[in-house]
From TrEMBL:
Protein name: ABC transporter ATP-binding protein
Domain of life: Bacteria
Keyword Glycoprotein: no
InterPro entries from the UniProt entry: AAA+_ATPase (IPR003593), ABC_transporter-like_ATP-bd (IPR003439), ABC_transporter-like_CS (IPR017871), P-loop_NTPase (IPR027417)
Coiled-coil segments on the chain, per record: none
Amino acid sequence: MKTMESSPLSGDKHAPILQLRRLSVGIGERRFCRDLDLTLRPGERLAILGRNGTGKSTLLSVLTGLRAPLTGEVHLAGRPYAAFSARQAAQLRGWLPQAQRDAFASTVLETALIGRHPHLDRWNWETEDDVRIARTALTAVGLDGMERRDVQTLSGGERQRLAVATLLAQSPRLFFLDEPSTYLDLKHQIAVLEIFAREARERQAAVVMVLHEPALAARFCDRALLMYGDGCVDTGSIAEMLTAERLSALFEYPLARTECGGYAGFIAQ
């Protein structure tokens, strides 16, 4: 039996799914962003770019509700996190952290089914439909046929793809991805990012992803947020943000922009 708790989303499906109002984020005396205003609508994909240590993951933890901002507000579907139960928030937004930690042995299928927990009543088991959803997610990331494997026997790349499958099984309307290409070879980097592009296109899910490769941001995102680490940020369309001049300043290294087959690339000079 499924939970009867009301859906966290109601009303206009085209209304902003994420709104930041004068958001300031930092740790101790250090400020990573100040007075950030941003609106993300269903179907939009935002890349967060910056050097190591500029606060990208810290900002993402605030956006997911796992850390409080210094000042300002984060609203999901027009409401602050405090207005949602933990289950409602998990139905609305999903998070892919940088590292996966498996304290106990479990199978690949059992791990993917964790994504269905926000959709179950507290004392109920997964249904056949939940298993079907989890299996479909495993197929999407190329792990079909591995359902009975122990997660502790997986390679780093396989474990990352399983984390993506678990998130897909959760079926949130808003994805927060912290370096989703971690541990993945080139083929699977593109495949995973294409999955989230399809989620945005077909389900109108919104996607916020921390990336280190500007070319991937140019290919798979509509907008970008550049974090300089001193409290200053720039945000705008991909075309506006991902220029050689801006990225050279962001990464403190001269870059040149090139194009091949309609895709942008950035080469260190």
